[in-house]
């Protein structure tokens, strides 16, 4: 019997944001194979319907359109999400946007937009759902951050900062919610072959429109999803999932920070 066969989410209700493509889509498809009830969210309801139809059990999937820029909508969306299956067991905060621009050239409004999506939108949704988790003394919040949430790299200043902020927030509430039996998992992807670099914002707020070479050579999203789901099943507090170079960089940062600083000055940024 394979290790994967021990991972069972049968009839667990899982809400995934950013589920229309990439990591979110790959996780949705895998969770469906494992018997989960799914709520899939993003701004693109048409793409979400296609993901739903690709799931093994589309009858156990609901689509809920969401825009993280509209933080004021989160309480209403949580109420609607709860109505689908009567409860939510796991929230996966996956939606977000990346950046490819020099800090000195990036408009402040672009910096703010990145934070409004990646940080404020994510914590608004989390805070809206928390009362339900606290009331039943059970729940699991999974947030997809990034290796750059641990290491700041060139051309990703505000993206990196928003991911660092997520680590600060979720590490803090992990301690606050311990007594309520609520688990927090932070998953830090390295390079994964998705549209993240294509959709990344440039200095003036326009999308980059091309895929970075490193992203094109990144992990297959399905492989990432397999590893991530195993970590969620084990309720890991934090895990890095990426290539050898990204994982190695985390350890260099910890033990040889000056060396990493020198290495980063020579990084090919796109």
Automatic annotation (TrEMBL):
SUPFAM superfamilies: NAD(P)-binding Rossmann-fold domains. It comes from the Bacteria. Transmembrane segments: none annotated. Pfam families: adh_short. Keywords: Oxidoreductase. The keyword Oxidoreductase applies. Signal peptide: none annotated. InterPro entries: NAD(P)-bd_dom_sf (IPR036291), Sc_DH/Rdtase_CS (IPR020904), SDR_fam (IPR002347). Gene3D superfamilies: NAD(P)-binding Rossmann-like Domain. Belongs to the short-chain dehydrogenases/reductases (SDR) family. This is SDR family oxidoreductase. It comes from Lutimonas vermicola.
